Amino acid sequence: MLRCASLTKTYASGGRPLTVLNDITLEVEPGAFVAIVGPSGSGKTTLLGLLAGLDRPTSGTVHLDGQDLGALDEDRRARLRAEKVGFVFQSFQLIPTLTALENVQVPLELRGESADARAAELLDRVGLGDRGGHYPAQLSGGEQQRVALARAFSSRPRVLFADEPTGNLDAATGATIIDLMAELNRDLATTLVLVTHDLDLAGRARRTLRLAGGRLVADTAA
Amino acid sequence: MKAFGFVLRMAARELRAAPRRLFPLAGSIAIGVAALVAIDSFTDNVRDSVRQQAQALLGADLVISSRRPLTARTEAVLDTIVAGGDRLARVTSFSGMAFVPRTTGTRLVQVEAVDPDYPFYGRIVTEPATAWAGLHTGRHVVVDPSLLTSLGARVGDSLSLGEARFEISGTVVSAPGNTGIRTAFGPKIFIPAGHLAETRLLGFGSRAEYEAFVRLSDTRSAQALADRYRKGLAAERARIRTVSEDQNDLNESLSRLTRYLGLVGIIALLLGGVGVASAVVVFIRQRWETVAVLRCLGGTARLVLAVYAIEAAAMALAGSVIGAAGGLVAQRFLPGLLTGLLPIDVEPRVSWGAAALGVGVGVLIAILFAAIPLLGVRGVPPLAALRRAYESDRPRRLDPWRAAAGLLLAGATVTLAAWQAGSWRQGAVFSGGIAVALLVLWGAAWCLAAAAKRWAPSRWPYVWRQGLANLQRPSNQTATVILAIGLGAFLLGTLLLVQSSLLRTLRITGGPSRPNLVLFDIQSDQLAGVDAMLKSAGLRSTPPVPIVPMRIQSVKGRPAAAILSDTTSGDEGPRGGWAFRREYRSTYRDTLVSSERVVAGTWWSGRGTPGMISIESDVARELGVTVGDSIVWDVQGLPVRSRVASVREVEWARFEPNFFVVFAPGALEGAPQSLVTLTRIEQPADRGAFQRRVAERFPNVTTLDLSSVQETLEGLIARVVLAIRFMAFFTLGTGALVLAGALATSRFQRMREGALLRTLGATRGQLIRVVLAEYLSLGLMASVTAVVLALAAAWALARFLFEGDFSPALLPLAGLVAAVVVLTVAVGLLNSRDVMRRPPLEVLRAE
Q1: Peptide bond before B543: cis, by omega within 30 degrees of 0?
Q2: Cα B168 to Cα B161: distance, rounded to the nearest angstrom
Q3: Contacts for B526 with CB less than 8 Å, ≥ 6 apart
Q4: Which of A20, A22, A18 is nearest to A7 (CA)?
Q5: A96/B2 Cβ within 8 A
Q6: Which of B28, B217, B424, B794 could bridge to B85 as Cys pair (CB 3.0-4.6 Å)?
Q7: d(CA B179, CA B332)
Q8: Nearest Cα residue in chain B from A14
Q9: Measured between CB atoms, does B2 come within 8 Å of chain A?
Q10: For residue range A39-70, what is the model confidence (pLDDT) as tens digits?
């Protein structure tokens, strides 16, 4: 499903090159549940961004569902994301000017599909069927992240990327979010790649990648 | 198509959720559109009114006029034109002294001696209404109401004019074409042509205009007749005018006025554009993460750009429509502001064309201004959704789309200005001027921020350093604020300077020792008597200046009649040969006076050689003569040869006896001449009494009270300035809105900072001083830059448009700087009142 080879990312920082990701090679099977862990600044989020095609690597290649991301321009990568990728962010990143229901509709609408029924069904599924008309500011953090989950799954993505999905939530709320993600991963056979500090959460994954100083230092299966 | 549906839905949802965020955009453009629609709608109304009233303004289908009694040949042409059922009415106009024996009031008046049929079109409305119809039933006179006021007279009084007496039978309520300018040299009165001769005022040396009004009875085209006879009449020094020519002339001169007002409106629109751009910059910054999320979710750059472009366009449309509605309301005030300047009655009507055009222009300008920051949306990386402080590692390059948007904007501005000014050259000059003003203000803002960064002394108290640091912090609004305040202040400053410079030129006359009463048309044999009257009243007067009326017979050997009837050279110059046709009132003397300056050749020393002349530079250009050329003059039928010895520039704005042509002594002493002398009488009452005594003893001598002329002219200038100021207020309004928008942007950031400072122990007083330091420097920088710009603009206007001296009025400018600084600081403090008032915890939690 996901394959990267010799992935390296270097930023120019204060005039000096700073390598944040160094020669990463890995492969993720369809339907897998992978956690990326490591200390702050180890390159977790950079790796996630590159795997999702949000940025271009300095060198190396990424293949998503057989497509070489390096061969696609920005617009075609965007279309690929619309077709096959879902996201969950640490700070939820709901669009503040849209209602919960409309936020869930966006990915489907971007593909030009009618979205009303499926969006309502997904909101129902994350337990917010009666909150569809509320704006993000009117929802609690846990509720916002549940809306974000519904949005991530609305377009039936092949891969779901999650960046610290429980980072801004308390332990109990975080646990329900993880349950929900695991359930959706199982039911919809979606490949799940998540970055986390939370060792409990990492423990739920079937495979853990550990980064340190921009290098892949451990790759363990549960 | 599906993508388009998404774009529309997305834009609609965003607008629905937070329309307030785009209010500054809509508001900025609304005021500019209002200004444009007001002036364009007014212009349309003026054109409509001119079209409807042109025939009434001329009073006939065609008019033949001359500065001397119509010659036999001119009368022959008139006979040819007037046939069958055509009607003819003659009018003779001249100035004279009106005297009311009952009140002993005297005043210079413009007399129109009219035939019973005049006017054929349009109505002269009188009070009582029967006065006009009854004018010819006796020795009646119908007068301008202002004459009754100034003479203390009433209807029924008798009024002497020259050697005749008339009964005041009514006042003129309205007459086509009456304007303030036309009555500056005296109110108008109408007498029956049949009694004109009894006044004996049309003697030698008096200036009169002889007009023949023709009403055609058939379908012959007045224009065709005019074209056929124009050349022949020109040789006879007579002019022929038609309704459509009159209409064109009037439209031309009125649109010159409305064009300048329109340009002031465009400044408001462009400043609104700056406001739009600044509102969009802020809006995009607020939407940064949403854009990144949309990109993460698979929206292409173009799609996301389209969403925000549609939003901006919708708000621009809303703003423009509101502005157009406001403009249609505002235009109702324009005719009132221009009372006395317009020779027609302007009916304020809604001009849908002007409104539609205003909306279109508003949307276009808003979109072009919005495009430059809006295009930045394409550069938002999807990665920004993951990392808040994401910085692109891609180097900044020139974005060809942004460059294209910039070029389009410049092109649209020039086109808009050219359309409003009526010429590409003026449009380009105007746009260039505004661009320079914007650039200078922008540069000043940049310098201020840079100076705050580099030179804020580290020994200054913390609060001042913090205030100055605010000028150059990330996402500061220094440039927008300085542009918003500066452009309005620049406009006001220029107006102040031009107005005071014009008024000062006028007031030179009003100086304590300058003459304020002119006595002209004194005949040679009356000079001793007039002199005795002056002496017995204890008045000092200038030496009498002789005036000899003359016409041009030939220039450089070519007869004037030949030049005038030769169309190629007869139409030379802006007024079509007026310099060849006019009557010259020349003098002779041996010295230069203070209002003139020799620019070519030399002034004769001592008495000079008889036959040498000095000619005014504009006339010299019109006649195509220079030093050494010969001109033969027709002085009462006798040829007088002359040679140009020098060319002079004359400062006409000063009320002094100035001349197009001055002869060296020796050539004209024997010619028939009248004399002019000037004196000064302090008290208006004494002035009136002296005028009356002169009118009683010498009915043909005209006295002109310069103070009243000056008053009238000052009143007219005040009107024009008022109208321009009315338009300038649109710019000020926009500036205030843009300023408020710019400040509101940083409000939340400021509140957080203020709360932090207060948490750290800052007092209210310290916070106020921080705000004070920041806005004091902003206000000072903006107003001083604006004043420098205004000085440059006013100098250029004085030098190239009004062709006068420029001496800046520094006191009003200092007042302007003070007012702008106080206003800026006040707005700044007002904007920060929440920072002082709300508890720090509440603010810090609000995140």
Answers
A1: no
A2: 12
A3: B698, B701
A4: A22
A5: no
A6: B217
A7: 20
A8: B393
A9: yes
A10: 888 889 889 989 988 888 999 999 999 999 98
Query: Which residue did the predictor score with more confidence, B475 or B95?
Result: B95
ipTM score for this prediction? 0.83
**Identity (one letter) of the amino acid at B444?**
A
Using 50, 70 and 90 to split pLDDT, how confident is the model at B33? very high
Say whether the peptide bond before residue B69 is cis (omega within 30 degrees of 0): no
For the ranges B17-26, B53-62, B747-756, B827-836, the one whose mean pLDDT is highest: B53-62
Whether A65 has its CB under 8 Å from any CB of chain B: the answer is no
Closest to B2 (Cβ–Cβ): which among A52, A78, A112?
A112
Q: Do A106 and B295 touch (CB under 8 A)?
A: no
Whether the CB of B285 is below 8 Å from some CB of chain A: the reply is no
Distance of alpha carbon A130 from alpha carbon A152, whole angstroms: 19
Mutate to test the interface with B, among A40, A110, A153, A154 (most CBs of B within 10 A): A110
| Residue in B10, B16, B21, B386 to test binding to A, most A beta-carbons within 10 Å | B386
For residue A121, give how far its alpha carbon lies from the nearest alpha carbon of chain B (Å).
20
Amino acid at B80: T
B199 DSSP 8-state letter: G
In chain A, what residues touch B19 (CB-CB under 8 Å)?
A: none
Neighbours of B423 (CB within 10 A): 13
Nearest to A87 among B16, B290, B297 (CB): B297
* C-alpha–C-alpha distance, residues B624 and B445, integer Å: 51
E strands, B684-813, are 702-705
Whether B42 and B71 have beta carbons less than 8 Å apart is answered as no
pLDDT of B506 over the 70 cut = no
Question: Which pLDDT value is given to residue B564?
Answer: 75
- Measured at the CA of B130, the angle between CA B128 and CA B134, to 5 degrees, comes to 125
Q: Is the model's pTM score more than 0.80?
A: no
Taking a C-beta distance cutoff of 8 angstroms, is the pair B35, B265 a contact?
A: yes
pLDDT score of B229 more than 70: yes
What average pLDDT does range B340-362 have in this prediction? 85
Could you give the angle at the alpha carbon of B801 between the alpha carbons of B798 and B804, nearest 5°?
A: 40
pLDDT (average), residues B218-230: 85
d(CA A166, CA A146): 11
* Cβ pair A109:B297 closer than 8 A: no
Nearest Cα to Cα of residue A103 among A146, A73, A62: A146
Low-confidence ranges of chain A (pLDDT < 50): none
Both tokens assigned to A192: 């799940």
Distance CA B143, CA B123 (A): 15
**Residue A179 is inside which H or E element, if any?**
helix A171-188
Mean pLDDT of B30-52: 87
- Who has greater pLDDT, A36 or B234? A36
